[in-house]
Amino acid sequence: MRRAFTAAAALALPIALAGAPTVAASTGPSANAVSGVQAVHQLKNPTNLVAQGPDDICNYTKNRPTLHQGSSGRAVQQAQCYLNQAIDAGLDEDGDFGRLTKSATEDFQQCADIVVDGLIGAQTWSFLSFWANSPDAPFC
After folding, report:
1. What CA dihedral angle connects 34, 36, 37 and 41, to 10 degrees?
2. What CATH code is assigned to 51-140?
3. How confident is the model over 7-54, as pLDDT tens digits?
4. CA separation for the pair 117, 66 (Å, rounded)
5. For residues 32 and 14, what is the distance between their CA atoms, to the nearest angstrom?
6. How many CB atoms are located within 10 Å of the residue 41 CB?
7. Which residues are bridge partners to 120 per DSSP?
8. pTM, 2 dp
9. How far apart are the C-alpha atoms of 110 and 133, rounded to whole Å?
């Protein structure tokens, strides 16, 4: 059995992808296009994909600046906590990015198979928060 494909259904998805409001113009077989539009909306506006928040294992800060040896503060504590959870680094969560934190960062980066540079930038933050909040942590 063939489904009817109406012009309204053909226009609904491109409009939704362009960010414009979606209006269901008809019912019947073309109404299936509305559920596809809703799926696109959920992909464009995810609400359940962020690890940080009340369920985050480490809650020093939500800030994710680029960190390097010599950095200090709550973001370093957050990173140290994540390193402890992700690879059982055994770091003091003192907020000082010293040689031990740099070494643990490099160990984590090698384990995660990402760029090993001892810096905690966007990619490392992303992997750290995901791995630290995983039920199977610690890894490596």
Report:
1. 140
2. 1.10.101.10
3. 544 444 444 445 545 444 445 554 444 455 554 445 455 554 444 445
4. 12
5. 15
6. 13
7. 67
8. 0.62
9. 19
